């Protein structure tokens, strides 16, 4: 088990003098800001132009309430409302196992389409 406080402290220290270039990141199936909370607690959020989307309005409403200035949207990973390569990175965590094989392939195609630098799937 990872001690999250130590991990957060390590990231905070490592980013004490952050780079000047912010990365644009889109997160599919962001839930109620599940992963954004960690980006923020580790000091990573200040380095990101972050957009999160989820199918469920309730999750997006929760995320917006917790982080009012962050871009949270309703959206479908199988048809992402974004132009090609509009983000540096696309992120999906705990998503693909909930999709059918065809939907999984479509989701990966969409994430690759909108990401200019890469896709991170876990």
Task: Report on the architecture of this protein.
The structure is a single chain. The protein is an alpha/beta fold and 122 residues long. Helix content is 35%, strand content 25%. The chain has helices at residues 4-14, 34-41, 57-66, 101-114; strands spanning 23-28, 48-54, 71-74, 87-92, 115-121. A 5-stranded parallel beta sheet has the order 3-2-1-4-5. The longest helix is centred in the last third of the chain and has 14 residues, at 101-114. The relative contact order is 0.18. The model has no long low-confidence stretch (mean pLDDT 91).
Shape: globular
Residue ranges: pLDDT <50 for 5 or more in a row? none
Order of helices and strands: HEHEHEEHE
End-to-end distance, in Å? Answer: 17 Å
- SS content category: alpha/beta
Number of DSSP helical runs: 4
* Largest sheet, spatial ordering of strands: 3-2-1-4-5
Q: Determine the fraction of residues in helical runs and give it as a percent range.
A: 25-40%
Give a quick account of the main beta sheet: strands, pairing sense, barrel closure.
5 strands, parallel
Global Rg = 15 Å
| Number of beta-strand segments | 5
Strand content: 15-25%
Average pLDDT: 91
List the helices and strands and how they pair.
Layout (H helix, E strand, L loop, with lengths): L3 H11 L8 E6 L5 H8 L6 E7 L2 H10 L4 E4 L12 E6 L8 H14 E7 L1
Parallel strand pairs: 1-2, 1-4, 2-3, 4-5
Features:
122 residues, alpha/beta, 5-stranded parallel β-sheet, 35% helix, globular
Provide a concise account of the structure shown.
The chain is an alpha/beta fold and 122 residues long.
